[in-house]
UniProtKB/TrEMBL annotation, chains A, B:
Residues 8-277 form the Pyruvate carboxyltransferase domain. Its EC number is 4.1.3.4. The keyword Nucleus does not apply. This is Hydroxymethylglutaryl-CoA lyase YngG. Gene3D superfamilies: Aldolase class I. One of its GO terms (biological process) is ketone body biosynthetic process. Belongs to the HMG-CoA lyase family. The gene is yngG. Pfam families: HMGL-like. Keywords: Lyase, Metal-binding. One of its GO terms (molecular function) is metal ion binding. The lineage of its organism: Bacteria, Pseudomonadati, Pseudomonadota, Betaproteobacteria, Burkholderiales.
């Protein structure tokens, strides 16, 4: 396993990608508890919400308050999604460490989800970069290329189009770029191919991988991406999150499951798996009726507490 | 992905590992339909049942009839599980191509599940080898070392004990040996480590990997095993199968999900995924009330039928 990174960062996106797909509206105090417990469990990058019009996503309307709280936690990178310049200006004013601008490489998905073409988004990232530079702040701008492995609305998304979007985002001023399997179409072969190309293009500015477990392949895809050198993944506790255009989607890679797998691979994450499981259990009580995913919570951690057959009475 | 085998064999074990864990008893005619449809979908290795006393597992009492039918299909390797010499003698008389003798590397699991110690099983494999040689038949003898990654009853299973069992099985006359994560404890790190050691020990006589999806890692574990050169895996349609000593177990790696992943990795399996999904759908009607697993059946195959953004009206 020596080709894999020795250390991997999980960015918790449940408060954004998760909550935006649920009908429940969680009170701000609960979200602050969530942030504090996630931080205590070792998470050091959290996407706390979106700067979208509150009437569009009331679940995320308290994002400014969450940013303000999260910024008080030492060493925590606080990120938020922004769909456009207006949202970016609000995010910059709140002092986020990183803002993520989503772009759909699928033209059809882009129009349905963002009401813009990919090139409209690329131009907007240029304006966001100008606004960031004018503000003189250190906020990082990340261009996240979604539907990178295919799209439920459009079908095939050509790899060349994904690469074109990545290059254009970097050209207009994104600091980093990421690849997302928004609808859960990716398999390890496609992941290995596309991330290898993306790294050749973007180098260290290839920031993060984002996988959904729609076809049960999220963790296998992480392994494929690790093999190309990717060392940061978006995950959500309990795997909450989906896409309105991805029927049957079963959520993001679950934070606790991925932490467990990486621990087995002796890849350092800094995460306390039991604390993650405890927080996930609290989330299920805060969000009754919502669907949670994840195998580790169902099956429990393996009982490997040091017993061995040589110590069992029956082996005497 | 060039380090992986270019061709992989899936051995369907749903009729044995699956049915033995279900309370339903499927009529022999249905099982024959199952064999025929699995064969038509491209499966060329099927474990059709077990030669255990019919009163212990009535679900599998028709194994001799199934072997007789399966032997009529050209190119199909027909295997069956045997717990002891008596079962092996029956299997040899029926003309199976391969008989699998299970051994639990966990002493506690071995006593609970087989009522024998690992060394009792090793000695029995020696007797089975003698019986096979005396019969003058070509039946292969496979020693399957289970609980190789830990055990719900015992906890840790030392790697050295697993290797000792593998070596002893080969020494007493097993043609091939396999490793199984009977209770779903394995992660990719442990898989890579143990299969690398096993290959160093057994070479080409390391035959097969057997993973359960208890903690959502079955497919990730397959990738880890592929990386060590393993090119054969036990799977079951719909992931049916479990272990009475593994609470929360969620079945075997699902044949259709693994076929889908390998196809994405451009690894040849010879399998028709749509035919596998169709057969899985029939199984759910034959086994009402039983729990089926697998993500592909839930989410469907990706809609990648050649459309691309350049051909969509909205992109004009």
């Amino acid at each position: 396993m020596s080709l894999y990174p020795s250390r991997v960062v999980l960015r918790e996106v449940g408060m954004r990608d998760g909550l935006q797909s649920l009908s429940s509206v969680l009170p701000t105090e609960r979200k602050i508890e969530w942030i504090d417990a996630a931080y205590a469990a070792g998470l050091r990058e959290i996407e706390v919400g979106s700067f979208v019009p509150p009437e569009r996503l009331p679940q995320l309307a308290d994002t400014p308050a969450l940013v303000a709280h999260a910024r008080t936690l030492p060493g925590l990178s606080v990120s938020a999604l922004v769909p456009n310049l207006k949202g970016a200006e609000r995010a910059l004013a709140c002092g986020v460490d990183r803002l993520l601008v989503p772009l759909s490489a699928s033209h059809a998905h882009s129009l349905a989800n963002l009401r813009k073409t990919p090139d409209d988004v690329i131009a907007e990232v240029g304006r966001i970069r100008a606004a960031r530079d004018a503000a003189g702040v250190k906020t990082k701008i990340e261009g996240g290329v979604g539907t990178a492995f295919g799209c439920t609305l459009q079908g095939v998304v050509p790899e060349a189009e994904v690469m074109r979007c990545l290059a254009a985002l970097l050209d207009v001023g994104a600091d980093d770029v990421s690849l997302a399997d928004t609808v859960g179409y990716a398999g390890p072969g496609a992941v290995s191919r596309l991330f290898t190309q993306a790294r050749a293009l973007a180098g260290e500015r290839l920031w993060c991988g984002h996988f959904h477990d729609t076809r049960g392949l999220a963790l296998a895809n992480v392994i494929a991406a690790l093999g190309t050198g990717v060392d940061r993944f978006d995950t959500s506790l309990g795997g909450i999150g989906g896409c309105p255009h991805a029927p049957g989607a079963s959520g993001n890679a679950a934070t606790e499951d991925l932490a467990f797998m990486l621990d087995d691979m002796q890849i350092v994450t800094g995460l306390d798996i039991d604390a993650l499981l405890a927080l996930r259990a609290r989330l299920t009580t805060w969000l009754p009726g919502e669907t949670f995913h994840g195998a580790l919570a169902r099956a429990g951690r393996p009982l490997l507490t040091g017993a061995s057959w040589t110590t069992l009475p029956s082996a005497a």
